[in-house]
Amino acid sequence: MTSTTHITTANNRKKWILIAAARPNFMKIAPLMRAIATHNRENGNTIKPFLVHTGQHYDDNMSDAFFRDLQIPNPDVHLGIGSGTHAQQTGNVMIAFEQVLLAEKPDLIIVVGDVNSTLACALTAVKLHIPVAHVEAGLRSFDRAMPEEINRIMTDAIADHLFTPSPDGDENLLREGVPREKIFLVGDIMIDTLLFNLEQAKKTDILQRLGLEEPNEKEDKNGIRPYALLTLHRPSNVDDPKTFRRILDGLRQVATKLPILFPIHPRTKKQIAAFGLEDAFVFHPSADISQTEFRNEGNRNNRIHTFDPRGYLEFLNLMAHAKMVLTDSGGIQEETTVLNIPCITLRDTTERPITVTEGTNVIVGDDPEKIIKEADRILTGNAKQGQCPQIWDGKTAERIVNVLINREKSC
Ligand code: UD1
């Protein structure tokens, strides 16, 4: 009897293809895979997840490290697309993904975020009449010079189910003419991953390895030496030497007051070499961020301490204990808001305005004076206070899976 039920259920299984492509996607895929597994355990295996990695990011520390840290199952298919111009990357993903869709005939595809692969996969599926769910829909920076903004607008225009993290996302979509019944306010999926992993992250030994936990005369009251954490990789910031130098002028002033730690994106590393900006940085060998080396350099000079990108858990631990975070990333604005860590955003716009209206985020652009002023505000104990937006509660993936299951039932 039981086995008959299982055979019947297995035959009726719906196939959902999930797309992972680049670093900021992996923390959005992990909770979805977990929520599908939970649903299957409790409801007799009705969904067959099929994970596709497009290979937009391919270095171990930009991709595999995240699969390990977040315990994401190995992809069912790896497209191995790699780097290229926007047209090459988008086009190559489309050509390769079309073959997967023709072979696998899924009932639905789920794309996340705003990278080139998000748009490429959504566009390929929609032309084959396969429904598309977009997780993290509705975000808008209103800056069309950002490649991600084009990816967001285009993906949302063709998706069938749009899952938004905050009410501003719903408003943007409604204004663009998306029917109300396609929009679901479900919360921020990155925060599912943050809350799920925070305790584990705090057990990583990155703070000790950096010599930040050693008591010394600069010790903070919680036993950790104050430091700032930096990420910087947007083309608009690092591809133009004038802008990059302006930002560095501000950062080097901040670096005279507390050490700045900078896990460096490959694009930024290339641009530092191309523009001859090495003087502003101390490069630490990635595998061995030796305490001695770091402490010897300390913040006696105004150079920025650079090392290879960290995995999810180590980076989260660094973020959770930072005095401040300086960034041009999108997701980090949200994560710092939830962690209640002051965030200085090195961009003129944000597609995540709720982190400014409710959270700890301040937008300063590339203006050195503003960077220094905001950092000083934090160092003198006057950091902007924030609160965690509603329904950023760790249950976003569960809500998404429930909506999609109900849709399958009504089909
Ligand atoms: C992409 C996303 C961006 C996201 C960022 C996170 C788009 C348009 N942009 O930008 O939204 O914030 O990922 O990192 O999709 N490279 C490596 N190893 C890798 C990946 C990249 O060396 O694993 C180098 C390549 O030489 C490449 C450069 O980094 O030229 C940039 O990579 P790319 O995927 O084009 O865009 P990102 O700047 O990473």
What this model shows, in words?
By secondary structure, the protein is α/β, with parallel strands linked by helices. 47% of the residues lie in helices and 14% in strands. The chain has 18 helices and 14 strands. It has helices at residues 2-11, 23-43, 64-69, 86-104, 116-127, 147-158, 167-175, 189-202, 206-209, 235-238, 241-255, 266-275, 291-297, 312-321, 331-339, 354-357, 368-379, 396-410; strands at 14-20, 47-53, 77-78, 108-112, 132-135, 161-164, 183-185, 228-231, 260-263, 281-283, 304-307, 324-327, 343-345, 361-363. Strands 3-2-1-4-5-6-7 form a seven-stranded parallel β-sheet, with helices on both faces. Strands 10-11-9-8-12-13-14 form a seven-stranded parallel β-sheet, sandwiched between helices. Helix 2 crosses helix 18 and helix 8 packs across helix 14 (312-321). Residues 1-9 have low confidence and may be disordered. Uridine-diphosphate-N-acetylglucosamine is lined by residues 22-24, 56-59, 62, 83, 114-116, 147-148, 233, 265-267. Residues 22-24, 56-59, 62, 83, 114-116, 147-148, 233, 265-267 line the site of uridine-diphosphate-N-acetylglucosamine.
